[in-house]
Design a protein that fits this description.
The complex is a heterodimer. Chain A has 11 helices and 15 strands. Chain A is α+β, with helices and mostly antiparallel strands. Chain B is an alpha+beta fold. In chain B, helix 16 runs parallel beside helix 17 and helix 19 crosses helix 20. Classes of the chains: A alpha+beta, B alpha+beta.
Chain lengths: ~325, ~800
C-alpha cells in the first residue's frame, strides 16, 4: 500500500490538479512474463532502472496511476512458480510472491508466528489481500507496511538474488527511507526467512486505523520469549511512526530478564514512544501517533506475554 | 354509487423488492451504461485555486490534439444560457428560501474561479481519456486572490467578497421569536450555553452525477437528456427555460440511479453545458462525474455553527430555547433551493417534540470560497437535532436528571397540534411512547449499571439519545409552512391495459426507494389485482405525467395518495362493466385476486382481462351509461405535511487511551404511520444510520487555511465500512397520520436526521467523568484525545 499523502497543490503552485489514483495508466510500457527466477534476473540485468517487477501490483499500479513511477517495462512474476509457497522447516521460509492472504491463513504462521498472521489479516480488503504479495510488501519499503513490523519482530532475513549472485540481508538492515531499501534494481526478492519459534514464544500485532480496511495510523508488532515469570528476549517493531519500519531497541532491551508486571510493560510502551519519530499527515498527527505507540505497544506486549504462556498481569 | 374497497393483501407486507434481482446481478442500466452512436465525451478544466482571477485561457495546444472535437470556455457558452439563479420561482416552484441576495452563477466561470474545482472550460473529445489529456493542455492564466475560508471571518467588513456583485458575504438573514426568550432567560434559575459546529459533509453517492445530451436539429429538432437525477420533470422544466427549447421537444430520461441523497435533486451548471456542447458539435455528448469532481465540485452540505442557549427550572423543565445558526455555504447558491435550506431547516426543526414556550432563532448563510452546499438527505434537520439534543443532555447532566426522564418531562402530547416554529401543523404521533419503547428495547437500567461497572475497569461506554421528528411528505402546504407559496403537482396515471395488465406511470423519480415494489403493492391492493399484474413505469418525461420528483420523504405519501384516487376511478368503471355483464348491482361488485366478483357468489366473476376486453373492444357489452369506457385515470395528490417521529439511542465505547469511538449498538424506534413495506422502511433506516455514524465520527471535507480542499478522494473523505456500523435494532410504533389518505408519513430521512445527535451524545456521555464538552462533528480519535489531555491538564492545574 502506498503511504505518502497525495500531492496537494497549494495556492501559488503551478495550477495543476493533483494526480490521483482514480486515473487510468497514462504511459505505455512493455510487459514480459519470464518463467523462472533466472530469466527474471536476466531481464532485470538487461533493463535495470527502466524496469519494475510486478507481482500483486497493489502498490506499483497505484504509483503508476499517480505518475510517481513510469517504468518502460514491467516484468511479471506471475509465472515464476518457484517463488510461491510457504515451507516450514526449523523456521519458516515464505516465497516472495506468496499472497498476503495465504500467509495470514497458513497453519504454521497462525500457530507459531501469530503477529505475522494478525498483520497480514489486517491488510486492507480481501481483494487486496489476495493480490498483494509478501515480497512486494517488503520491496515497496513503505513505512506504513503492515507486514514489515511483524517480520522485524521475528528477526526476518530477506534472500535476494540477481544475475551476479545471491545475498541474504537482515530485514532490520534493509529499509533506508520511505520507499527506499538496500535492494538493488537488478535484484529480486526470492524469499523471506523467519528463525525458529518455540512454545515459550508469544507474539502480537496491533494496528490503529481510521476505518476497517485502511492503512495504519500506527502499528506495532511484538515478540517475547518467556522463561517462568521473566522475559528473556523481546522485539518491538513499529509501523507508520518513522521514515522506515522501526525496531524499538531500547524499549525491547528494557524488558530483558525482568519479572513481568504492569509497570514494566507500561514503561516499555513509554520508551517505544520516545523512540518513534512520527509525522503529521492526512491520517493522523505526530502527537497522536506518539501517544498511541505507548498504548498499543503495551497492549501488544500483554497479549504476547499471555500467548507465551505467561501469567495474567494484574 | 359506492364501490367496494378491496382487502389489503400486499400493503404492510415485508415484500422483497422487485428491482433488486436486476440491480444486484449487474443488469441495472445507469447513465454510464448508455452508449449512443457517434457519442463524444466531455471533461472539465477546473480551478486548482480557491479564489483566482482568470486573465486568459489558451486552448490552442489542447485543440490541436487529434480527436478533440471542441473546447468551450465561459466566453463561448455563457451568453447562450444562464446565469443560474437560486430562489427564482420560474425554475419550477421548487425553491424554499426567499428574501436573499441573488447570486448569479455563470455556466463556466469566466472572470474568476470561486472554489477549488470550479469549472472554467469543457473539452469534448473522442473518448474520455483524450478529453482528460486535453484538459491538462488547456493553459489558464490564473491570478490567485485571497480566499474567504472561515464563515465567521467572512462576516467582517474587511473580508474579501466571494461575489463582488454583492454588498456582503452574508446572503440571507432571517430571525424568529415566539414568547419572550430574553425575559425567560433572565428569570430562569439555570441557563446553559454552547457553540456546536456541525462539520462539512457530503452525500457521496456510489454513482456520481452523470448526463448524456443528444441535441438534434432540423424538422424534428429537440433534446434528449439521460441524467442520473431525482426529478425528471423539473429537470425538463429547468432545461426548457434555460435552453429556450419547448418542453414538448425536450425529453428527460432517468435510468437506474446509484444513490441520490438530495445531491441529484439540483440543477448544476454541467447539466446545461452538456446539451449546449451537443448542439454546438452536432453529436451526443456524455459527461460522467469522477470522484474528485464529486467531492470537490458538486455540492457539500451542513457546515453550520450553532450558538445554543437553553433555560431550565430546577426540575429540568425547559423554559426557553434560542439558537443562532451560521451556515458556511460555499461559493454559490445551490439551484433551486438556495443556501438557506441547511440553516433554515435546522431552525425549523430545533423544537421537535419539545414543549417550550419561549423559542427564537436567527439564521445566516455566508458565502465562502469553498464548494457550494446544497440539499443532502435530512437537510438541516440533522443539524437541528444535534444542536437541541446536545444542549438537552447538558441540562440533564448538570441538573443530575436522567436524560430519558428529562425528555419525557418536556415532551408534547400525542395529539395533533401546532408548533409555533414553522408553523408546523403536527399530525400527531407517539413522542413519549417511542422514548419509553427505546428505553425498554435497550435494557436501559441494566446498561447504566454496566456503564458504572465498566468505568471501574477503566472502560467508558456512553448512551446517547435523540428524540427526533422528521418533516415529510413535502408539498405545497409544507412549503407554505416554510414561508414559500409554491404549487405542487404530482400526477400518477393508472391504466388497465386490454390484456388486464395494470400500469402505474409516475414522474416520481426513484433513486433507491423501491418504488417499483411499493407503488405496485399499493396499486395491486387498491384495484384488487395480483402484484404480478402491475408494472410501474417511471422517470421518463415522455412516458410519465408531471411530478415534482423524489425528495423530502415525499414519494411514498404523494404516490400512494394519487394511486388510491386513480384506482378508485378505475374500480368504478370496472364495477360498472362487471355489474352489467354479471347482472348484479354495482354496489355488490367486489375486487380481489385480479377479478371482479359478485358479493356472496364468488363464482360469478370476471377477470381484469375479461373486463378490459369489454372496455376496449366490445361496446355492445358495455352498459349504456358507461360514458368513456377507457380504463385510465390520471390523478394528483398534494398531501398535508407529515411529521414522523421516533427515538434513537446510540451506545458507544470510547477507548480513552486511543480516542477511538466504537458504535456498539443503535436502537431505533420509529413511527412513520401506516407502513407500506416494513423491509423498505428498515432499509431506509439502516442506510440512514450508517450515513449518520459516518457523519458524526468520520466524514470530513477539510480545507486548509488557504482554502485548498484536502479531502479529494475516498481515502481522505471516509465512509464508514460495514465493519464500522453495528447491526441496527429497529422497532416500529404505528400512529396512522390523519393528514394523508394512506395514513403514511415520510420516513426516508429519519436515520440520518437522528443518528448523529445520538452518537454525539453517547460520546459525551461516555466522557462525562472527565468534564469535557463534545461540541462538533466529526469526532475523531485525535479530538477525543485532545479533549482528554486538555481536561487532564486543567485538573492538574487546579490541584497545584
Amino acid at each position: 500500500m502506498t503511504t505518502e499523502v497525495l500531492k496537494v497543490t497549494r495556492s501559488g503552485d503551478e495550477g495543476v490538479l493533483p494526480a490521483t489514483n482514480t486515473r487510468v495508466l497514462v504511459t505505455e510500457f512493455e510487459y514480459s512474463r519470464p518463467a523462472s527466477v533466472e530469466e527474471a534476473c536476466s531481464e532485470l540485468a538487461e533493463h535495470g532502472d527502466d524496469a519494475r517487477l510486478i507481482a500483486g501490483g497493489t502498490d506499483l499500479i497505484v504509483q503508476m496511476k499517480m505518475e510517481r513511477l513510469s517504468p518502460a517495462r514491467l516484468i511479471s512474476l506471475a509465472s515464476v512458480s518457484e517463488l510461491r509457497g510457504i515451507t516450514a522447516d526449523d523456521g519458516l521460509t515464505i516465497g516472495a510472491t506468496t499472497s498476503v492472504r495465504s500467509v495470514a491463513r497458513s497453519a504454521p504462521v497462525l500457530e507459531r508466528y501469530t503477529a505475522l498472521a494478525e498483520a497480514c489479516e489486517s491488510f486492507s480488503t480481501v481483494p487486496v489481500m489476495v493480490m498483494a504479495t509478501i515480497g512486494g510488501n517488503i520491496r515497496n519499503a513503505s513505512p506504513a507496511s503492515d507486514s514489515a513490523p511483524a517480520l522485524l519482530a521475528f528477526d526476518a532475513v530477506v534472500d535476494l538474488v540477481s544475475k551476479s549472485g545471491e545475498r541474504a540481508v537482515a530485514l532490520s538492515d534493509l529499509f533506508t527511507g520511505p520507499g527506499k531499501s538496500v535492494i538493488r534494481a537488478d535484484e529480486l526478492v526470492r524469499s523471506v526467512r523467519l528463525p525458529r519459534c518455540g512454545a515459550e514464544t508469544g507474539s502480537a500485532f496491533v494496528k490503529v486505523a481510521r476505518v476497517m480496511a485502511d492503512i495504519s495510523k500506527v502499528a506495532a508488532a511484538v515478540r517475547v520469549v518467556r522463561d517462568g515469570d521473566r522475559i528473556t528476549e523481546a522485539r518491538i517493531a513499529l509501523g507508520s511512526v518513522a521514515p522506515t519500519p522501526l525496531l524499538a531497541m531500547e524499549a525491547a532491551g528494557s524488558l530483558r530478564d525482568k519479572q513481568v508486571d504492569a509497570a514494566l510493560l507500561d514503561e516499555a510502551g513509554r520508551i517505544a514512544a520516545s523512540e518513534s519519530a512520527p509525522i503529521t499527515d492526512v491520517r493522523s498527527t505526530d502527537e497522536y501517533r506518539r501517544r498511541i505507540v505507548a498504548t498499543i505497544v503495551r497492549d501488544a506486549l500483554e497479549s504476547a506475554w499471555l500467548r507465551a504462556g505467561g501469567k495474567e498481569i494484574s | 354509487m359506492s364501490v367496494q374497497t378491496p382487502q389489503h393483501r400486499y400493503v404492510g407486507e415485508r415484500l422483497v423488492r422487485v428491482e433488486d434481482p436486476r440491480l444486484l446481478r449487474g443488469r441495472g442500466q445507469y447513465v454510464d451504461d448508455i452508449d449512443l452512436p457517434g457519442m463524444a465525451h466531455a471533461a472539465f478544466v477546473r480551478s486548482p485555486f480557491p479564489h483566482a482571477r482568470i486573465n486568459g485561457i489558451d486552448v490552442e495546444a489542447a485543440l490541436a490534439l487529434d480527436g478533440v472535437f471542441g473546447i468551450f470556455t465561459g466566453k463561448d457558452l455563457n451568453h447562450l444560457a444562464g446565469p443560474l439563479i437560486a430562489g427564482r420561482n420560474d425554475y419550477g416552484g421548487a425553491t424554499l428560501g426567499s428574501d436573499l441576495l441573488e447570486t448569479k452563477r455563470q455556466l463556466l466561470a469566466a472572470d474568476k474561479a470561486r472554489h477549488v474545482g470550479d469549472a472554467v472550460a469543457v473539452v469534448v473529445a473522442r473518448d474520455r481519456y483524450l478529453a482528460e489529456d486535453a484538459c491538462e493542455l488547456v493553459h489558464v492564466d490564473w491570478e490567485p486572490l485571497p480566499a474567504v475560508v472561515d464563515a465567521n471571518e467572512a462576516l467582517s467588513d474587511d473580508s474579501p467578497r466571494v461575489d463582488e456583485a454583492l454588498a456582503s458575504n452574508n446572503i440571507v438573514h432571517k430571525d424568529f421569536e415566539t414568547g419572550d426568550v430574553q425575559a425567560a432567560m433572565d428569570s430562569a434559575p439555570h441557563v446553559f450555553r454552547k457553540r456546536f459546529h456541525h462539520g462539512r459533509c457530503h452525500p457521496a453517492p456510489l454513482e456520481p452525477r452523470g448526463i448524456i445530451a443528444d441535441w438534434t436539429t432540423g424538422a424534428d429538432r429537440g433534446v434528449t437528456v439521460w441524467i442520473s437525477h431525482q426529478m425528471a420533470h423539473l429537470m425538463r422544466t429547468y432545461l426548457s427555460e434555460l435552453l429556450q427549447m419547448p418542453e414538448g421537444r425536450l425529453r428527460v430520461i432517468v435510468p437506474d440511479v446509484g444513490g441520490g441523497f438530495g445531491l441529484k435533486a439540483h440543477l448544476f451548471t454541467e447539466d446545461v453545458v452538456i446539451p449546449l456542447v451537443s448542439r454546438a458539435l452536432d453529436r451526443p455528448v456524455k459527461w460522467i462525474e469522477d470522484r474528485y469532481e464529486n467531492l470537490a465540485a458538486s455540492n457539500h452540505a451542513r457546515e453550520v455553527f450553532c450558538d445554543i442557549e437553553a433555560a431550565a427550572d430546577d426540575d429540568g423543565r425547559l423554559l426557553a430555547l434560542r439558537m443562532k445558526f451560521l451556515g458556511d455555504v460555499g461559493a454559490y447558491s445551490p439551484v433551486p433551493y438556495t443556501p438557506w435550506i441547511d440553516v433554515g431547516m435546522a431552525a425549523k426543526s430545533m423544537l421537535g417534540s419539545y414543549d417550550i414556550d419561549n423559542v427564537g432563532y436567527t439564521t445566516d448563510a455566508v458565502l465562502t470560497n469553498k464548494c457550494p452546499t446544497g440539499a443532502y438527505r435530512g437537510v438541516g434537520q440533522t443539524v437541528g437535532q444535534c444542536a437541541r439534543e446536545s444542549i438537552v443532555d447538558d441540562v440533564a447532566r448538570k441538573l443530575d436528571i436522567d436524560p430519558f426522564e428529562l425528555r419525557l418531562r418536556n415532551c408534547i402530547g400525542d395529539e395533533p397540534r401546532v408548533n409555533p416554529i414553522g408553523p408546523h401543523h403536527y399530525d400527531g404521533g407517539s413522542y413519549a411512547e417511542c422514548l419509553r419503547k427505546a428505553r425498554d428495547v435497550l435494557g436501559y437500567d441494566e446498561l447504566r449499571e454496566r456503564q458504572l461497572e465498566l468505568r471501574e475497569q477503566g472502560r467508558y461506554i456512553g448512551i446517547g439519545i435523540c428524540n427526533f421528528m422528521e418533516h415529510g411528505a413535502w408539498g405545497s402546504k409544507t412549503y407554505r409552512a416554510h414561508g414559500a407559496d409554491r404549487p405542487f403537482i404530482d400526477l400518477v396515471r393508472l391504466t388497465v391495459e386490454p390484456g388486464g395488465s395494470v400500469v402505474v406511470a409516475t414522474g416520481l423519480t426513484p433513486n433507491g426507494q423501491g418504488h417499483e415494489t411499493t407503488f405496485a403493492q399499493l396499486a395491486a391492493d387498491a384495484l384488487g389485482a395480483d402484484l404480478e399484474q402491475v408494472r410501474v413505469v417511471q422517470a421518463d418525461t415522455e412516458r410519465t405525467p408531471f411530478s415534482m420528483g423524489t425528495r423530502g420523504s415525499r414519494s411514498g405519501v404523494v404516490g400512494s395518495g394519487a394511486i388510491l384516487r386513480a384506482a378508485e376511478d378505475l374500480r368504478e368503471k370496472m364495477a360498472q362493466i362487471a355489474a352489467h355483464q354479471l347482472e348484479a348491482a354495482v354496489e355488490d361488485i367486489e375486487f380481489g385476486g385480479g377479478k371482479a366478483s359478485v358479493r356472496g357468489a364468488p363464482s360469478q366473476a370476471l377477470t381484469f382481462r375479461e373486463i378490459a376486453q369489454i372496455a376496449y373492444f366490445a361496446p355492445e357489452k358495455q352498459p349504456e351509461d358507461i360514458g368513456e369506457p377507457a380504463l385510465v385515470s390520471t390523478r394528483s395528490y398534494d398531501p398535508d405535511p407529515t411529521y414522523g417521529n421516533g427515538t434513537v439511542v446510540a451506545v458507544v465505547e470510547v477507548d480513552v487511551k486511543t480516542g477511538i469511538v466504537k458504535t456498539e449498538r443503535i436502537v431505533f424506534v420509529e413511527d412513520c404511520g401506516v407502513v407500506l413495506n416494513p423491509m423498505i422502511v428498515d432499509g431506509q433506516i439502516a442506510g440512514g444510520v450508517a450515513q449518520g455514524i459516518g457523519q458524526s465520527l468520520l466524514e470530513q471535507l477539510a480545507y486548509d487555511v488557504d482554502g485548498q480542499l484536502l479531502s479529494g478522494t475516498l481515502k481522505d473523505f471516509l465512509y464508514p465500512t460495514a465493519g464500522d456500523v453495528p447491526s441496527v435494532e429497529i422497532a416500529h410504533v404505528v400512529t396512522p397520520s390523519p393528514a394523508t389518505t394512506s395514513g403514511m408519513k415520510g420516513v426516508a430521512e429519519s436515520g440520518i436526521i437522528a443518528t448523529p445527535a445520538a452518537v454525539v451524545n453517547a460520546v459525551a456521555d461516555a466522557l462525562s467523568p472527565f468534564s469535557v464538552e463534545v461540541d462538533h462533528t466529526p469526532i475523531t480519535p485525535n479530538d477525543v484525545r485532545a479533549l482528554l489531555r486538555a481536561a487532564q491538564a486543567s485538573s492538574q492545574a487546579a490541584t497545584t
